Amino acid sequence: MMDKLKGFYVKNKIPVWVVLMVLLVTMPLYVSAGNMRIVCRIMLYIILAGGLNVISGYCGQLCFGIAGFYCVGSYVQAILMKTYNVSYWLALLPSGIVAALIGAVVALPALRMKGIFLGMITIGFSELMRLIALNWTPVTGGAMGFKGIMAPTFFGIKMGGASKYYYIFLFVVIAYMFCTNRVIKSRVGRAWMSIREDELAARSLGVDAKKYKILNFMYGSFWAGIAGAIFVAYSTYVDSTYFTLDEGFNVLGMLIIGGQGTLVGPIVGSFVAQVLTESLRFINVWRYVVYAALIILMMWVRPQGLIGASGSILAGSKAGKKKTKKAEKIVKSEGKEA
Amino acid sequence: MLSQYIISQVVNGLCQGFIYALIALGFAVIVGIVGLATFTHGEIIMIGAYASYYIFLACGHNLILGLLASFSASWIVGIIIYKLCYERFLEAPEHISLICTIGFSMLLKNLAQIVFGAEKKPMLNVIENQIYKFGPVEISKVQFVIMGTVIVLSTTMMIIFNKTKWGIALRSVSQNREAAALVGINVKQTSMIGNCIGCAMAGVAGMLIGIYYQSISPTMGATLSMKAFSAATLGGLTSVPLSSLGGVVLGLIENLGISISTASFRDVFSFGFLIIMLIFKPTGFVKRKGARP
Question: Is A60 left (phi over 0), alpha (psi -120 to 50) or beta?
Answer without folding.
Answer: left
